[in-house]
Design a protein that fits this description.
alpha+beta; Aminopeptidase; seven-stranded mixed sheet; 5 helices; globular; GNAT_dom; GNAT family acetyltransferase
């Protein structure tokens, strides 16, 4: 029987207290803020409370964060999220972060495929989408490789001080659901 949320190389799992250092480093890396929704640093206390309080219930929280773990070494390579879950329209946004040490090794693509299989076949989600800054060529390549297609451009969508940047909407639709 095939296991959900893993393949032979990686597994996706709920965040654990020992992930606090990873989350603290990623959430406070200001070079990553332009790609996400962070506008201020997170304290260790706030992240610890998140780990304690998170129900990891997609229907209650409208989001689900999973850690990407390399099975052979048990190292955390990154994190992948479903966010803005809409159970009526059966769609969710996807966010992914691969630690710099593990980029360009295929872990991001594998994580996207596992999350897609879980979302489409287990959760019965109709569509997944990603909003990606137009200059984030690495993420655009990753989502294209994963079978996402460009669905539109959001003009001047992302703010970086007084500069506004376009964002691409990339979408993957589950063709097996009617």
């Amino acid at each position: 029987m095939k296991k959900i949320l893993e393949n032979n190389v990686i597994r996706l799992r709920a965040p654990e207290p020992e992930d606090l250092d990873h989350l603290y480093r990623w959430e406070n890396d200001t070079s990553l803020w332009e790609y996400g929704a962070s506008i201020a640093p997170y304290s260790r206390f706030a992240l610890k409370q998140y780990l304690i309080d998170s129900k990891q219930d997609l229907y209650a929280d409208k989001q689900l964060r999973l850690m990407i773990v390399i099975k052979e070494s048990n190292e955390v390579a990154g994190t992948i999220d479903l966010y803005d879950f809409d159970p009526f329209h059966k769609r969710a946004g996807v966010g992914i972060l691969i630690d710099e040490k593990f980029r360009e090794q295929g872990y991001g693509l594998q994580a996207l495929h596992i999350l897609e299989e879980y979302s489409f076949n287990f959760l019965k989600i109709k569509q997944l989408y990603a909003i990606i800054p137009e200059n984030n060529r690495g993420s655009i390549r990753l989502f294209s490789k994963a079978g996402y297609s460009e669905a539109g451009i959001l003009k001047e969508w992302l703010s970086s001080g007084s500069i506004y940047e376009n964002a691409l909407i990339m979408q993957r639709i589950n063709g097996s659901l009617i």
